Amino acid sequence: MPERRVRTITESSFAKYGVLIRMPPEGDTDKSRSNFAIVLPVKSQGWYLGYLMCRNKEVTGLHCHPESKETFEPVRGVPLLVVASPGAPNEYEVFLLDRPVCLFEGVWHAEMTLSDEAEIKIIENYSQPIVSKDYALAKPIRIGALS
Fold this sequence. Notes:
By secondary structure, the chain is an all-beta fold. The protein has a single domain (about 5-20, about 45-140), classed as Ureidoglycolate hydrolase (Jelly Rolls, Sandwich), CATH 2.60.120. The protein has 1 helix and 11 strands; from the N terminus they run βαββββββββββ. The strands form 3 sheets. The protein has a 5-stranded antiparallel β-sheet, with no helix packed on it.
């Protein structure tokens, strides 16, 4: 398996997994006042709001939600987000989660941290029960800690 490097999240580097949660250029036209924009319109029966205290230094498996988008919003620490396309969980990429993102439905993902711990706010579409799939990796993903 090729060496994996931690990537920076940009619109183009993350496009196949999801979108950046940010003000779109066309939504920030009036510089004299605050602006609001719908970043990704989604119909929902409601939302779960979660808060993850991440202490994982390795990832042994990925999971996905085939019917729901999911946000990951860094709060504290140095979190990493491991992602892979719906049909290819072994072809994962590791991103520094330094900005909020919204994953598309079915994207495989897991979280880990470079710092001792990292805090991540997570929002996902409400469904009963939450539909989730798990995938065990043949070899754990490990990234060294920050010194």
